[in-house]
Amino acid sequence: MTPADLSRTVLHTVRRAVEADELCAVVPATAGVRVPPRPGCGDYATNIALRLAKDSGRPALDVAELLRRRLVREPGIARVEIAGPGFLNITLDGPHGGRIVREALARTAGSEPLTLRPPDALVQRLGADAARWSLLCPPGLDRDLLLVQRESNPLFRVRYAHSRCRALLRNAHDLGFGPQVPEAAEIYDDEDAPLLAALADHPRIAAARDPERLARALERLADTVLRWQTTCTPLPRGDEKPSVVHRARLALAEATGTVLADGLHQLGITAPAHL
Known about the structure:
The chain is built from 10 helices and 4 strands; from the N terminus they run αββααββααααααα. By secondary structure, the protein is of the alpha+beta class. Strands 1-2-4-3 form a 4-stranded antiparallel beta sheet, with helices on one face. A hairpin with a 3-residue loop joins strand 3 (77-83) and strand 4. Helix 7 crosses helix 9 (211-231).
């Protein structure tokens, strides 16, 4: 289930509650689902109960419990928990993490590139890669920023995230082990969930063939994997021996690097293994 699918499911749940006279409120246009900022809070969270509470005149926790009971019966949803003043934390009964990684690894840089033709003057000023990316930048962004290797440069973050994934593979090879996609038992945990969710949603975005949308998705994926690497390094520490978890997370890093490289290729931009 993608975020768009989940948003539709949440709205459908609200609509059914309204039609059953369980809730007196106007069904909003969007549900507003997002990946929780902290691990262990489900795959996605929504504040829709808080928004509906204002309209219905009921306590947000009451609205949240009403929606929770309905949502948990929906296909593809494993559990729904109420957090804080009325947030709904939703855990999906989605595909096995190993399957997500395996499908991401199957992506190659063979996708047909999108047509991005920056002016010659812009190519001379920024170089071919940065010039193409500049065509996809939000209005007002200083294009000269794309020449600077720092976190404020979105192209640098995407390429740096790709190079970090490749570096993890090289370092693991030096330690004598490699990636291994988990087969049966679920190895990945809540800390891996945001990155798995981003990988699972990427094929739908790439299939849309929308360059700007693809660029924003690559930025989100890069930011997600860079956060993930600070807490979930696939490399053993000290005298620790490589375990099945290390190998599974190394496969997750390899899959992410593959998707980042494929996305950059679609935009006609190189994905260097070293930065």
